[in-house]
Amino acid sequence: MAIALTNLVAETDRLLDAARISDYCPNGLQVEGRPQVRRIVSGVTASQALIDAAIAAEADVLLVHHGYFWKGEDARVVGSKQRRLKALLAHDISLLAYHLPLDVHAELGNNVQLAHRLGIEVEDALVPGNPKVIGLQGSLPQPLLAGEFAARVEQVLGRAPLLVNPQRRVSRIGWCSGGGQGYIEQAIVAGVDLFLTGEASEQTYHSAVENDIAFIAAGHHATERYGVQALGEYLASHFALEHRFIDCPNPI
Fold first, then answer.
1. Is residue 242 classed as helix, strand or coil in its secondary structure?
2. How many whole angstroms separate alpha carbon 41 and alpha carbon 164?
3. How many other C-beta atoms are found inside a 10 Å radius of the C-beta of residue 90?
């Protein structure tokens, strides 16, 4: 079964309430391909490797979390940007990208999906009442040492995380997928025992140690694989389309 690209985009925009969120890039349809859609390939980042995989899979739409046209980047279509766009256009593949709207969605979002896999009960926003801080906070069914929780993270995400304060006893957790290390200060104010995100900055270590909080950097890519999968599955089910998630590993 095929559906119109315009219908797919309209439903995804509606579902994620994309127009409501101010972001660093355009959300929604970034590159327009063929007008009918039968097959969606999803992935984290619209890299050349993922584009090549989508071409091989004969995708009509490439659905990603990290697309193109970021604020502040060089606007010229040269180098790798030219090669990526040329490949999409040559094969008539649409690029559909959702950044912050996919981080914050209450069911399909990266942060909620990550919590489900790690066994965290979602309780509130990291900073209640402040939508500009996109992290969440919640609790574990029973307390663990931070080192024990880090072992769970490694098992679920398939990569060893960076861990600060492994002996800290943990019951309340704050988290923000991707590059949310700057939110550790909000996590400290929220009173959680551990803050988890994708990346770390040099000062993150000192914030964790000096405030007696455990910290885990589990990988930007690794923590943001699940929202786009959930979104792809929703669209496939809603429109009776084919969907395939393709993971192009990234150690960052």
1. strand
2. 36
3. 9
DSSP assignment, residue 19? Answer: G
* CB-CB contact of 59 with 41 (8 Å): yes
Helix (H) or strand (E) run with residue 181 in it: none
Cα–Cα distance for residue pair 41/89, rounded to 1 Å: 16
Per-residue pLDDT tens over the stretch 44-88 = 999 999 999 999 999 999 999 999 999 999 999 999 999 999 999
DSSP 129: T
- Assess contact for 47 and 41: CB atoms under 8 A: no
Distance between CA atoms of 79 and 102, rounded to whole angstroms?
28
pLDDT along the chain (252 residues), means of 10: 96 96 95 98 98 98 98 95 98 98 97 98 95 93 98 98 98 98 97 98 98 98 98 98 97 95
Helix (H, G, I), strand (E, B) or coil at 153: helix
DSSP 173: E
DSSP code, position 231: H
Measured CA to CA, the distance from residue 193 to residue 215 in angstroms comes to 9
- The residue type of 131 is P
Nearest to 110 by CA among 7, 221, 22: 221
**Bridge pairing between strands 94-97 and 121-125:** unpaired
- Roughly what angle, to the nearest 10 degrees, separates helices 48-56 and 79-90? 10
**Nearest-CA neighbor of 163 among 118, 195, 117, 139?**
195
Cβ atoms of 193 and 147 within 8 Å: the answer is no
Q: Which domains does the chain possess? A: 3-99+225-245 (3.40.1390.30), 104-223 (3.40.1390.30)
